[in-house]
TrEMBL record:
It comes from Alkalicoccus saliphilus. It comes from the Bacteria. This is DUF2197 domain-containing protein. It holds the Pfam family DUF2197.
Length: 67
């Protein structure tokens, strides 16, 4: 299965037997991100968390716990 990264438009091949390939086939809303972009975003997110200026948005379930 050929997939395209949503950020860098890099085209890669996935084995059709992988769970990720099945998810992408059956649910078009799901998008593919290559490993390089995923790592880059993880590094930048970690750097923002370490600055202390990053605010994590809470889900509705987490918000209910604080009330």
């Amino acid at each position: 299965m050929r997939v395209k990264c949503v950020l860098c438009d890099k085209i890669e091949k996935l084995s059709p037997d992988l769970p990720l390939a099945k998810k992408l086939r059956n649910r078009p809303i799901h998008t593919y991100m290559c490993e390089e972009c995923r790592e880059r975003i993880a590094e930048k997110t970690e750097a923002r968390l370490n600055t202390g200026h990053f605010r994590k948005h809470h889900t509705e379930e987490e918000t209910d716990e604080y009330i």
